[in-house]
Amino acid sequence: MKKRIGFIGSGNMASAMIAGIINARYSEAVDVFASNRSIGKLLDIKERYGVQIAENNVSVARNCDIIFLSVTPDMYPPVIEEIKDFIREDAIVVLIAAGQTISQNEERFGRKVKMVKAMPNMPVAVGEGLTSFSTNEFMTEEEIEEIKTLFESFGKAELIDESLMDIASAVGGSSPAFVYMFIEALADAAVLYGMPREQAYTVSAQAVLGSAKMVLETGQHPGKLKDDVCSPGGTTIQSVASLEENGLRAAVIHAVRANMNTIGRK
Ligand SMILES: NC(=O)C1=CN([C@@H]2O[C@H](COP(=O)(O)OP(=O)(O)OC[C@H]3O[C@@H](n4cnc5c(N)ncnc54)[C@H](O)[C@@H]3O)[C@@H](O)[C@H]2O)C=CC1
Ligand SMILES: O=C(O)[C@@H]1CCC=N1
């Protein structure tokens, strides 16, 4: 039987997941339900993907088989209080909020609930996402496979130990923002030297896409791949030396640490 998929909170991340599952034809629009605090975003999502606007959060909770809690972390307590008596016994609740744990939220439901903690990222919207996930003990092997298949419809999925979820959130969930900054900076430099802006984004973004694909598909160490680009006495090694002098690696590691510190991790 077709599963009904619901999103409680339909902001940026929910919209990206809806785009991912509809574009991948994982679900028909008729089986996808979205609720939100305000109507504007729902009308936009409805217009773009044809999905169902739910009357309210409780209606998503009552009617859906897989329910994404896609509100911000501070809204978890009130939203769970609102829906906890309406989630069916066989439904699966998916937490996607940064820093939220399975045990914390099991406690909020106060009863046995099938639960998944997942950390998707924005590129799910174009079928190239990464979703790290863990599950609680009430999920059967079949349900774990089912949820993995859903995540794989819009990218890769990694079943990980829940203790690694926060770092997966920083390095998989937040990192697209860092990468966009890198692409934007590369493009700014191209524009500085006269390249038209649109062309600069194409060149920079494709260079990042291709480099990531090389790491994933060749299995070679990123350091070796970097070395291969640096011709002896050439131009690239000059840039690499400059990036080292300016602390690129340290800046990235500090950025990840700042992310972890935000959710109370050292
Ligand atoms: N933006 C991202 O790349 C990622 C976000 N996440 C998680 O997704 C969650 C949502 O993040 P975003 O989409 O970025 O935020 P957002 O602010 O774009 O979306 C949250 C939505 O929830 C709605 N909302 C607030 N209170 C509500 C309520 N009581 N009932 C129904 N709807 C309500 C808001 O109107 C808003 O549209 C967060 O918990 C975040 O940690 C996870 C992975 C990546
Ligand atoms: O900024 C945030 O809190 C969320 C978590 C991962 C990406 N965005």
From TrEMBL:
It catalyses: L-proline + NAD(+) = (S)-1-pyrroline-5-carboxylate + NADH + 2 H(+); L-proline + NADP(+) = (S)-1-pyrroline-5-carboxylate + NADPH + 2 H(+). Keywords: Amino-acid biosynthesis, Cytoplasm, NADP, Oxidoreductase, Proline biosynthesis. Residues 162-261 form the Pyrroline-5-carboxylate reductase dimerisation domain. Pathway: Amino-acid biosynthesis; L-proline biosynthesis; L-proline from L-glutamate 5-semialdehyde: step 1/1. GO terms for biological process: L-proline biosynthetic process. One of its GO terms (cellular component) is cytoplasm. Gene3D superfamilies: NAD(P)-binding Rossmann-like Domain (3.40.50.720), ProC C-terminal domain-like (1.10.3730.10). SUPFAM superfamilies: 6-phosphogluconate dehydrogenase C-terminal domain-like, NAD(P)-binding Rossmann-fold domains. NADP(+) binds at residues 8-13. Catalyzes the reduction of 1-pyrroline-5-carboxylate (PCA) to L-proline. Belongs to the pyrroline-5-carboxylate reductase family. This is Pyrroline-5-carboxylate reductase.
